[in-house]
Amino acid sequence: MLYSSLVALAIISRLGGDSERRVSAASVIGMHVVVRLFAGMRERVGKPSINLDLPAGASVADAVTAVAREAKAREANANWCEYAHLMTAINDEYVSMDKKLCDGDELALIPPVSGGQCEVPGGVAFSESVEITSKRLDPSQVTARVHNDGNGAVVTFLGVTRDHNLDRRVKYLEYEAYQPMADNMIACLIVEMKQRWDIGLVAVAHRIGRVDVGEPSMVVAVSAEHRRPAFEAITHFVDRLKQVVPIWKKEYFDGGNVWIGRQPDR
Predict the structure, then answer these.
(1) CB contact set of 39 (below 8 Å; sequence gap of 6+)
(2) Containing domain of residue 92, as a range?
(3) Region 235-255: what's the mean pLDDT?
(4) Same domain, 149 and 199
(5) Whether residue 135 is found in the same domain as residue 254
(6) For 191-200, what is the mean pLDDT?
(7) 113, 187, 189, 259: which could join 263 in a potential S-S bond, CB 3.0 to 4.6 Å?
(8) Across all residues in the chain, what is the average pLDDT?
(9) 241 and 164, same structural domain?
(10) Is the Cα dihedral 172, 176, 182, 183 positive or negative?
(11) Residue 75: which pLDDT band, with cuts at 50, 70 and 90?
(12) Cα–Cα distance for residue pair 68/78, rounded to 1 Å
């Protein structure tokens, strides 16, 4: 990279005062960006990340176009980069397609999860309440984290792998997450819950990797003085998680497998 920079500066110096031929150092030197890929997009491109060298001033859309070229070189019919439903994040924060990139950025191209914005107030941390793990979940342990003598209600939700979907016999599910962004977005949703409802403690555990039929993939526990806000808050959380948290689910069934939700077309 240093050698390339010196060559670029040498070229610029040779152009001298000719304003029509002068090239800015920034546009020649450019920047390096790492693009992270997930779920069906990762499978389509064939690797989890791509290193890009882009001109200074390049936007997220420019990076997506560059990745599209690589995808089409691998698979002629790949058209997911007609990206009406693609979400993007720079350094773990959702951004728009016209956002300018900086040297050293990590850009994540995120298949839906539907999309949306969520901000965690400064200083808020839920490291003891949020867990994303490849280990089996124990609902009793998650529920125990929210017990408090001052609360008269504890509501626990379990998301469990069922044995069928759309007339298919499901064998198992496989989950993938973009961390630490997924942890941060879950913490954000906990803030939303506490702002809207009078609730106490919240604990969330989500599984990644293979989850067999009958096993829980997610456990959410909420405590409150009274039952209604706990029920309402936990329903809101599960709905919002499906919208904004970068966790994807792949279903394995007799005869094949498919990513659940809108994914890149072949």
Answers:
(1) 111, 176, 248, 250, 259, 263
(2) 27-110
(3) 92
(4) yes
(5) yes
(6) 92
(7) 259
(8) 80
(9) yes
(10) positive
(11) low
(12) 8
How far apart are alpha carbons 125 and 53 in whole angstroms? 35
Task: Tokens for 258, please give them.
Answer: 């498919």
Which DSSP string corresponds to the chain? -HHHHHHHHHHHHHHTT-TTT---HHHHH-EEEEEEE-HHHHHHHTSSEEEEEE-TT-BHHHHHHHHHHHHHHH-TT--TTS-TT-EEEETTEEE-TTPBP-TT-EEEEE--S------PPTT---TTTEEEESSPP-HHHHHHTT--TT-SEEEEEEEE--SEETTEEEEEEEEEE-TTHHHHHHHHHHHHHHHHS----EEEEEE-EEEETTSEEEEEEEEESSHHHHHHHHHHHHHHHHHHS-EEEEEEETTEEEESSS----
Q: Which of 62, 82, 110 is the last residue of a domain?
A: 110
Please indicate, yes or no, whether residues 38 and 144 belong to a single structural domain of this protein.
no
Task: Say which CATH number the domain at 206 has.
Answer: 3.90.1170.40
**Distance from C-alpha of 100 to C-alpha of 26, rounded to nearest angstrom:** 14
Tell me, yes or no, whether 7 lies in a domain: no
What torsion do the CA atoms of 64, 68, 74, 76 make, to the nearest 10 degrees? 160
47, 87: one domain: yes
What's the confidence (pLDDT) of residue 94? 87
Indicate the pLDDT class of residue 99, thresholds 50, 70 and 90: very high
Total count of domains within the chain:
2
- Give dist(CA 108, CA 250) in Å, integer: 19
42 and 91 belong to one structural domain: yes
Q: Which residues touch 258 (CB under 8 Å, ≥6 apart)?
A: 250, 251
- Whether residue 200 lies inside any domain: the answer is yes
